[in-house]
Amino acid sequence: MAALYEGYTLCAFVPQQNLSNSGIQGVEIERDSDHVLVTDSSRSVILYKVSDQKPLGSWTVKQGQSLTCSAVFNFQTSEYVAVSDNKVIRIWKEDDPLLDKAFKATVTSDIYRVLSIPSWEPVVLFQSGAVRLLDSLLSAPQQPIEDVLSQEESIRWSTCIAAEKQQQLVIFTTEQKGEHFLYLQGLNPNSLQRYRLEREEPGLSPLSFSACYRNRHIFLTYLYPNGRVYQSVTSVRAQGGDDGAQSLPVPRSLLLVLPVGEGLLEAASALVLDEAHVAVVGVPHPSAGAGRDFLCIWNTNFQTLQAGKEMAGRIYGQLWSFSNKLLIPHGKTLSVIPFECPKSSLASALGKLKQAKSKESISSTFVPSWNSILHGDKAQPLRTAETRVTRTTRNKSQSTTSPTIDQVLELIKTAPVEEVQEEVERFLSRSDIQGLQPSVGRIASTLVSRSLDDPAFYSSHTLTQLLNTQCLCHSVCPDLVLLALERKDYFLCQLCLQFFPDIPEAVTCVCLKAFISIPDVDAEKASLEPGSVSFMETVILKERGVVSLQNGFSPTSVEDFSDGMSGSKSRTEVDETTFNQPGLKCPVGSHKAALLNEILQTAYSDTFLLPHLKDLSSQHAILFLQYLHFLYVKCSQDHLLQVHGFRSPSLSQIMDWVCLLLDAHFTVLVMTPEAKGLLLSLHRFVKSQVKLVSELGKIEGSLQELDKMKTKRDIGQYSIEVIELL
């Protein structure tokens, strides 16, 4: 049976002023289903990686210009194609920083849309109904464009499909005086077919169209405001020809009758997923009543609703699907909803099929966690119940029936903390741990909601258990981090920063402000992840000249390792000369530093982080910069800090944050007397690094020659080799 799983937020957007338009022109697949191009209704194109929910690139046209159709990816040349001001075609590559400097070509007629599908050349569809391959159009941009459509006929929807026999089909629908027409434009060889769709009730026009190709036929599915979903089937003619002047009637069949509540649907869409399933958004749930919008999957063979998910905020009637993921704008966010549509029998469609409990059935319906999405096969398996419960609790859970998800959710709303903790623990100790993926997010959201409403209720232990399943992400439970900060649960904050790959930059800065504002005395009382604290304790002990046994490295081994770095000078001696920072001390305590280190290791985008970073006060900016300076110097001097196995930021992460802070607060830092010494110290460091790079450049040629030399295989157990550098 079809299923909708826990979704996550891909990005936020700003709806149009009249709130009837989401502000998103289109979402198009890029190189694969994990990369999409999002074009807004004004001037921007943003490339996202779906699994990371992070932008990889952004391009914007100048003020006064506008993008008039969604940007697409040219799969043959790995370039992006967009249209501005209806007639200007723009083409650029991912590494091009400015859209204004990209290739531009002006055509003679207004463009409706550029269509692109994998393995095929992009196609340009004009508002007049004419179609051109992109390359042929660019070879002569000023070529005349014919009028295919009659007067007062305008295009309402379009798509492109690859048919059999290496033919590409452009499909679009038009409207003229209440009549609706379907056009099939074949390419190589060229052919045009025009069909007239049957009329619905007077005054009703289709809200959405969806098309697919099967068995040399085009299946067109369309939704009307009265909730009726129709399907028309037309054949694809193999021979060339032109029937554009004719209007052949095409029959339709009633596919579904959806509930509409009171009145008619205004913003809704139906999208074909496969031969038997249709995704519908903006239509009330049959059992939820009017006024609430849902995303649903219907089985058209058995006329049954198989999955439903309520969508918060306004629905705009837009829906896209790529590789078992639905993308839907609602409220002010563009969400990604994973789904699956296995083949259905009548029993499963009616909900009467008993699901097998074998390992095969569990793995086939398992929704991958964020850990597996990001790391693939290398991801560690989820923790089992054996690592989370005591033997007594485990025996108890085995002897009694585990509560259902609905029972747990109802209990959380009213029960005391101890009872909630016990029941959630029992629920998590189920043997089919992999099936908990969709439920963990619902439990966490309910816990957070009650904790925000009831100041006397808070279960840190239960929330920590849910985080340790690694089934949560920020978009599933967006208030969890803020709740942890409000309750000063810094250990929970630390786990969120470690496990959530999709924390927005605004939330990262909120955490930074909270961490850097904590008095050291209060921070030292907090219980944090041991590895992160151990790293900072090691740094501070070395700062004071105290070295103890650490992760198997004794003082003797440390000295021997350092002595082996150079024949005349150790690495530490070289770095102390370079930095010239005697007496440099950590400006914060070890626990506070451990929290700041979690910020340094959080994923971010420079573009979205800088505006929020500017909100830091000058005092906090100087303190954070002093700490970054201290940490970089100490980690550069002692290479062993990077190999101990502690959870710690890398040198590149530290330096990236130094650059971000300087970019965000440079003017303030220059004008602040307290920052003068710090800036001079950073200036000396950069100067020494430039000198070092210059010296390395002098021997670059010699090093390259060494790299090209072939290593002798039979050198015996001992040999002396003399290499002359010319």
From TrEMBL:
GO annotation terms (biological process): maturation of SSU-rRNA
Keyword list, A-Z: Activator, Nucleus, rRNA processing, Transcription, Transcription regulation
Single annotated GO MF: RNA binding
Residues of the Nucleolar protein 11 C-terminal domain: 419-725
Residue intervals of the Nucleolar protein 11 N-terminal domain: 1-339
Subcellular compartments: Nucleus, Nucleolus
Chief location of this protein within or outside the cell: nucleus
Record GO cellular component, one term: nucleolus
Descriptive protein name: Nucleolar protein 11
Organism: Gouania willdenowi
